[in-house]
Amino acid sequence: MKKRVVLLTILASALVGGASAFFTTNFCSPTNSGYSFTVGDNGVDSNLKFVNNPLTENILPDFTQAAEKGVKSVVNIEIVKKVAIVQPQFGGDDMFEYFFGNPNRNRGQGQQQTPQYQEQRGGGSGVIISEDGYIVSNNHVVEDATEVMVTTSDGEKYTAKVIGTDPATDIALIKIDAKNLPTLQFGNSDSLRLGEWVLAVGNPYGLTSTVTQGIVSAKGRTMGMQKNSKLEIESFIQTDAAVNRGNSGGALITLDGSLVGINTMVYSPTGSYTGYSFAIPSSIVRKVVADIMEFGVAQRAFLGIQMGEITADWLERFGKEAGIKERGGIYIGEVVENGAAAAAGIKKGDVLISINEQKTNSVSDVYETISRYRPNDKVKISIKRDGEMKHFEVTLRNKTGNTDVVRKQELDLAKFLGARFDNVTDAQKKQLSIKGGVQVISLLPDGLLARSRVKVGYIITAINDIAINNIAQFESINIQDIELLEGIYPDGRRMSYGTIAK
């Protein structure tokens, strides 16, 4: 019995000793532990040190320097604009008519509607890009504003002037009168990699100087907003950095503090952040800002094609008819007459492979690449036709089909007339028996159309006896030559407005 106890004791000691040796070797060695111990003469640890662990080193980057730089260069923007509220007027004290209407009165006739105006406040963020006060933001932040106020990170307040906007890309450039401001320098959004750390800096919900972090989740993301907004160019940087209301116009920056995007939207059923946010790449922002500074307006170049991505679904539906058997590239479904592509010899049925040696695998790739150029710029286009590669030099054109750039003095009609417009729908054409037109969807209270008593909803079908069927024709009219507007209201009333008050 005593021998068994002695043997068990020896065995236990050996196990404990072995475990201790194993623990010391495997868990306290500098290659596996974050700590190094130095034992003094008295047996007490006299020099506890933290050393880098190769297994955990650089897992979390240092955000502090980029955050500090971003916060100093991002401003809070507050705007005031006047919003029209149309209130019906009723004669006498006919309360029955007030609540239920008059069944004997023709729709839209008789009673007039008097517009009332109230102030509406909003805001967002902006990024200082020059020491003398140029600030980039979103068009939707400052759109229709009668006042724009900027507060910098140190609490200084300024009245800002809108230098120019570009609804197609949702970019705005504003200016404050200041000097020696902290700035963010444009970075290269093309060099961003999926999974790369980025910071979003802005003023969500009025909480100034807010920084959130995330990674680049996708590039060249198209959200399908063109049909429901004025956005014509979509090629967003998608991140999981938290962005909410008020972040619009703020900065998306890399860890070295370079500006690689302007935060513009979230994708959410509630309107608040639920996982993904989207920024306009600096490659687009930089070009639009340069255009506004030089010309007062953004310059838009066009290839003059209608296109679609060659996906597996596309191949299944159209591949046999088009004679295309493999995925990849962009199918050119139509070539606009007198457009840039047509002039260069590109044809319907060609497959667009690359622009200036940059592969085009999505429609957003084409939009983003072409958005970097101006009318009259030349680009090299590679296409595949009947299985063979062909190369073309294409001189880009503007929307009206020529190579001219637009300058500040050539203000677009919408701004000149003080209104926003949209093409009429097919349903409206059928209902009103018209071939087309341009509808007034909003009016500025002090704009020319408002002063001429044109009302919201009016559809312009002709200017100076020249038929207007769509926005493109509308914008081709010489501003100074407008003498007569002809059109129709949605209720069927045909109205003409003589020499527009100027």
Automatic annotation (TrEMBL):
CDD domains: cpPDZ_Deg_HtrA-like. Residues 1-21 form the signal peptide. Keywords: Hydrolase, Protease, Signal. SUPFAM superfamilies: PDZ domain-like, Trypsin-like serine proteases. GO terms for biological process: proteolysis. Residues 101-123 are annotated as: Disordered. Residues 319-387 form the PDZ domain. Belongs to the peptidase S1C family. PANTHER family: SERINE PROTEASE FAMILY S1C HTRA-RELATED, SERINE PROTEASE HTRA2, MITOCHONDRIAL. This is HtrA protease/chaperone protein. It comes from Mucinivorans hirudinis.
